[in-house]
Amino acid sequence: MVGKVALNLARQASNNILFSGVVLFSTLFLVNLSLAQAPDTLWTRLLGGAGVDYAFDFCLSRDGDIVIVGYEHSIAPNGQTYILRLALNGDTVWCQYYGYHIGMYPTAIIAGDDDCFFVTGSAGGATTIKFSSIGDTVWVRRFLPPDDADLDPHKLCRSREGGCTVVCRRFDAAYGTPRIGLLRYGDEGQLLWYRCYTKSEFDFPCGIQQTADGGYLVVSSTYDDTVNSTQIYLLRVNAEGDSLWARSIGGVDAESPQGASPISDGGMVIAGSYYHREDTMFMADAFAARVDSFGRLAWLCVFGGPMYDQFFAAEETRDGGFICAGDNSSDFPGSAIWLVKVSGQGSLIWNRGYTPQSSAYSIHQGQDGSYVAVGSGGGPVDPNGVVFRTAAEAWVPPRNAPGITSFSLRQNYPNPFNSKTTICYDLPKAGTVTVSVFDLLGNRVRTLYNGYVAAGTQTLSLDASRLPSGVYLCRLQFGDQEDVTKMVLVR
Predict the structure, then answer these.
(1) Residue pair 73/52 in contact by the 8 Å Cβ criterion
(2) Which of 297, 349, 377, 397 is least surrounded by CB atoms within 10 angstroms?
(3) What is the pLDDT of residues 183-212, one digit of tens each?
(4) Which strands make up the sheet holding 126-131, listed edge to edge?
(5) pLDDT tens digits for 220-237?
């Protein structure tokens, strides 16, 4: 078992981060080694045999099982897709192999509403498959754009209306220029729509989530030739795939996002590599960033040492923080899986190395508070898939957020507003909150949030497009405290 990592360097981005022409403040900080205790490993499994075998992604089933998708060469020398379902103790529930009758190189898996699973990947076109709870194929769909462009699926998300939506990297047939493509499938596999979007020749999508209004928020990398650097790119579309807005986040150094997942306030947490120049060399650290549902950057923090460190995935945790997963070469010869826990404000809580000579591509927190990570490695030759589970994270008493000493609900902005407004509130310590909207008769018309929130300033978005004009009250409850503000909706 690898011991606790003593980071050589953990810093927030020391250059100025540019966003829509605004310079966001950033600070430099060193690690305080008196951190919270990282959880121990409960079990680790290597997946594969004598060949080169990979585990690319996984999801948690409705009952908490671990469902992994990967590609193996040990049984089929020419390669085949597999889906493996494990119980939480690591025992195999079932394993299914899919050879050339599917012929897919998988990239992502998600759980559906009816205990099914959706998998996407490349197989002579963008291929999406729906599987049953026991791994039987329900339907297979391959899509080739009418203009003979190539689609390379990267991620997908479940749609509340049924089915799934896939984000792809699209290569134009004539010029090979990559762009972002979206495919929307219904629950029976019917293609509802396909859209393509242009930003730059370096678009590389890494995350997608459905928004409250039925649209989608996509996270990608892009290239900004004004600063000669890659940046984070956010694309917002409506329920029919029409583009609403796009944002770029970045500075003179290169932010290359590798993964993104939704958070409770409608925004996204983004993980990736942060490339910067050290003397005459380019170095890579790992970064995590938080954006709200409007694409505005809340913070971007960089962690790493003198070698090559990176994150591939991040997810919001039950206590309002975030868990990041990737690999670390600065503290481990040959690299090791690296988990880093940060607060809702991006401050380091703990970090630790786990399986040596491996990388983690996906991570989720189980219902019991434990973490499960999946990746590949396990050795310098003929790597296998890797999956491990930690113990539940030890509970840490809530601490006051720096600079916030009192509980308060801020005035929404804009106010008066037409359809949409932003609500912010301050919490001096973590706890359970309820944010509700009432009309003047005392009827509750919306519950915006009800759950555990980390200390600090939190943001919610209210979409009142289906409410009539008038005066409304927003109420924040926190323990035995509450605060109310008046909001005016004008059509």
Answers:
(1) yes
(2) 397
(3) 999 999 999 999 988 766 567 899 999 998
(4) 105-111, 117-122, 126-131, 137-143
(5) 988 877 767 788 999 999
